[in-house]
Amino acid sequence: MSSTAEIEIPFHGARLSVPKEAAVKAWLDSALGRATERAASDVPAVGEYWEGQGGVYAGFVRGEGGALGWHLIVPTHPSATNDGIKWGPYNVDTGAKSHTDGMANTKALALLGDEHQAAMWATKLEIEGHRDFYLPARRELALAEVNLADHFVKGWYWSSMQYSADSAWYQTFADGGQDRAGKGITGRARAVRRLQF
Description:
single chain; alpha+beta; four-stranded antiparallel β-sheet; three-stranded antiparallel β-sheet; 11 strands; globular
C-alpha cells in the first residue's frame, strides 16, 4: 500500500484528505480495540465462562520479548466459528509471523486487504458488544487445545501465522498437532479476544 495514496472523508460539510494507510490503521485500532483493564480478582478459572467477556477463559498467554501478556478468551457464540474459509492468497509474504501474538498477525493481514479472508472475518465480528476479535496465533491455539479442546469441533483450525508465502500454520483439535496448509485451502477458523492488565 503506498503511503502517498489518500482517501477523502466528509467532515461537517468539508472533505478531509487522509493517507490511506493512516485511515486503515485507525480503523483497525478501533475495530480490534485496546485491551480492557480488569482487576486480577475478576479472572475466572480456566475453562469457565467469563461473564461479560463473550466467552470461556482459555488461560494466560505470556508476551514475547518482555512484552505484557494477556488473558485469552475463546467465544462461545456460534458466529465466532467459521467452518469454511480460506486463509488468503498464495505467493504473498504477509509479515504475519508472530508465534504468539495473533492480534499483531491479524492487524498485518488486515492491512493487506479483504483477500486475507480468515483474518478479515475475525475483525468484523461483534459479540456481546465486543469488536476486538482476531485470528489466534499458533501458541494461542495450542493453549486453547490444551485447556478447551472440548469447545472445538475435532479437526483443524487456521492460525494467523504465515509459514511461507504459500502456506500458513494450523492447529488440530483431534490429536493436538500443528502443521501447515496452502493458504487457498478451505478450513475452519475460530476468533478469539484478549484482556490485558
